[in-house]
Design brief:
- The longest helix is centred in the last third of the chain and has 26 residues, at about 230-255.
- The two termini are about 40 Å apart.
- The chain is built from twelve helices and twelve strands.
- Helix content is about 45%, strand content about 15%.
- The protein is α+β, with helices and mostly antiparallel strands and about 350 residues long.
Length: about 350
């Protein structure tokens, strides 16, 4: 796969970057008269791919020139996994790459997955907190596609989707939050339970002794029927804002402790000097560095640099970009990239 030029969305910081790392808005759409992907045959899937590709690439819209088209079956395993690491497709999408395709914008902020769980999955990604902007972009692309595609729609149920939970607007919006404070306090499980009662999901491992890589969690709406897209987005912003404020209070108290200051300082020191860094170690130590930068304990590096670094050092993305498949060789290259990116990192 050819590298697309320009700065990517995940290399920027965005609004409220201290806690909110990224925004995602996804719209699920299906074509009238065509079986859902799990019941569609090869010919049906090929037809959907050509219709979706034509709706984007052959349109008169200026955005048609911004997209590149990829048949998943023509990508290597590393290239496909790298798409996941860069958040452009879901893990389920690449589990079986037959009869699937994706259109990706030049800055990788928009991907249109074809024949995932639904025929069309429009996904818009933005740095920081940008739900309204992401929704506006998703709606614009949805309108463009609807001019050329016959969507399956019911007046009472809204957009028809393979999973009943996506009926209605077919929209899922989410914010990825960095929550080391709430995780360390032991209250992340309770936060997840409370969010579930309100119709939101907090994605992450809550089992004893385990935590998501880098203390990253995704809050998303679970209800799409009976609410407008704007109402669902506003509810998400309100709930995520409460969680972010709780996180800020807890982490402020944490970094008053010498033990936590030492964790942040040690993480910075290791990453600035190490010659071998595994993927898991990078995620853990970059979480401390991100925390230190957000709280002003560290300086000299932008949070956008950390966002970009977290993606660039993922295993498949490293392999896809360098051709190196041996774990130790990847660990060496990962360490080199991290040292170069963090060369100006200072303890304040």
């Amino acid at each position: 796969m050819n590298e697309q030029s320009g700065r990517k969305w995940y290399e920027k910081a965005g609004e409220s970057p201290e806690v909110v790392c990224s925004t995602r808005v996804r719209l699920a759409r299906n074509l009238r008269g065509v079986p859902f992907p799990d019941r569609a045959g090869p010919e049906d899937k090929a037809r959907v791919i050509e219709l979706a590709r034509g709706a984007v690439m052959n349109s008169n819209s200026v955005i048609s020139r911004e997209f590149s088209f990829y048949q998943l079956g023509e990508l290597s395993r590393e290239e496909a996994v790298s798409l996941c690491e860069r958040h452009m497709v879901s893990p389920d999408f690449i589990a079986d790459r037959r009869g699937k395709a994706v259109l990706i914008s030049a800055d990788e902020s928009v991907s249109i997955m074809v024949n995932e769980e639904d025929h069309i999955r429009i996904q818009v990604l933005r740095e920081g907190q940008a739900v309204e902007e992401a929704l506006e972009t998703a709606d614009r692309i949805d309108t463009l596609l609807s001019e050329n595609l016959d969507y399956a729609f019911d007046r009472e149920l809204g957009y028809l989707t393979q999973c009943p939970t996506n009926l209605g607007t077919g929209m899922r919006a989410s914010l990825t939050l960095h929550l080391p404070g709430i995780t360390e306090s032991g209250s992340i499980g309770r936060v997840g339970e409370n969010l579930s009662k309100l119709g939101f999901a907090l994605r992450g491992a809550f089992g004893e002794g385990s935590r998501p890589a880098g203390d990253m969690y995704q809050i998303s709406n679970q209800i799409s029927l009976g609410l407008s897209e704007k109402e669902a987005a506003a509810n998400l912003l309100a709930i995520a804002g409460q969680v972010a404020e709780q996180e800020k209070r807890v982490r402020t108290a944490l970094l008053k402790e010498t033990g936590w200051q030492d964790k942040v300082a040690r993480a910075a020191g290791v990453l600035r000097t190490a010659r071998l860094v595994s993927g898991q170690e990078a995620a853990e130590l970059l979480s401390y560095v991100r925390l230190g930068l957000a709280q002003g304990f560290l300086s000299g590096v932008d949070l956008g640099d950390i966002n970009g670094l977290s993606v660039r050092v993922q295993p498949a993305t490293l392999t896809s970009g360098t051709g190196k498949t041996e774990p130790e060789e990847r660990d060496r290259i990962r360490a080199d990239i991290i040292r170069e990116t963090l060369k100006d990192l200072n303890i304040t």
